[in-house]
Amino acid sequence: MFEKTWGFRLFFWSTLILIGLFIMFPLYWMLNTALKPAAETLVPTLVPSHPTLSNFWKVIQDPQLRQYVKNSLFTAGVSSILATFISAYAGFSFSKFRYRGRKSFMSAIMISKMFPYGVLLLSIYILMQRYGLLDSYTSLILAFVTFTLPVGTWTLKTYFDEIPDEVLESAKMDGAGWMLIIHRIIFPLALPGLVSVAIFGFVLSWNDLLYSLTLVTDPAKRTLAPGLVMKYIGESSSDYGGMMAASIMVSVPVTMIFLVLQRFFIKGLTAGAVKG
């Protein structure tokens, strides 16, 4: 072990403080702007001269924003659950079965993650238009499931790889079928991995702007990200205080979900990173 000199301590703590400021300052600036009245939002001050909670109160009272939250909860929740189950079945198939084309299919799923979202939007938009799914929640849910599947499948595959084959053989000897084995034995053992994929899919769907803005144009069906942009950002004027207040409040559900399930999330990602 090398001796920690004063120079090392200075470098360590300076770096730690800079990283902390880099991460926390944008959050502080959001709160700072949200507490300012409309006349002060464009004035760059570190502390509001006349702090107010009016921006938060307006957000709470706005029925349109509550509708955006409901829409986002529905699309993010449904797509997260669907993506988790499909990823679980696909990951289990890749992990425990051997069949022709398995490796090629696995590689194709992972390669699909390399394409930029903007490029994929062109083909997805045409596909949704052809099947009459534009301007519907179905188009968003299918798009979100598509984006979650590659990461979810590989994460759960590596998790299932850690489950001994002897567990499956023992269950089959007791007369259990594959569906019973998967739902009663495999999925409970892989619960941290399932939760981590579900959280990943939910956050990805909750924060999406590009696809939500393109595939859904009906104001009543908009989700949070495009709803906030369309409501608070205008050509002639913008309500930055209201947007920051709304952004802070709509981030609470995701933060609470992560705080409650963080031990599963961290365990699931760690297990998925051990073996490829």
Describe this protein's structure.
The protein has 276 residues and is mainly alpha-helical. It has a domain of 191 residues: MetI-like fold. Helices cover 75% and strands 0% of the residues. The protein has 13 helices and no strands. Helix 6 runs parallel beside helix 13. The C terminus is likely disordered.
The CATH H-level homologous superfamily of one domain: MetI-like
Assembly form of the protein: single chain
Instruction: Please indicate the percent range of residues in DSSP E strands (runs of 2 or more).
Output: under 5%
What's the end-to-end separation, in Å? Answer: 32 Å
Low-confidence stretches: 272-276
Instruction: List the secondary-structure elements in sequence, H or E.
Output: HHHHHHHHHHHHH
- State the shape: globular
CATH C-level of one domain: Mainly Alpha
The gyration radius over C-alpha positions equals 23 Å
- Please count the beta strands (DSSP E, at least 2 residues each): 0
What would you call the structural class?
mainly alpha
**What summary fits the major beta sheet?**
none
Which architecture of one domain per CATH? Orthogonal Bundle
Helical content class: over 70%
Average per-residue pLDDT, rounded, comes to 82
Total of helices: 13
CATH topology of one domain: MetI-like fold
InterPro entries: BP-dep_ABC_trans_perm, MetI-like, MetI-like_sf
Family: Belongs to the binding-protein-dependent transport system permease family.
Pfam family, one: BPD_transp_1
Subcellular location: Cell membrane
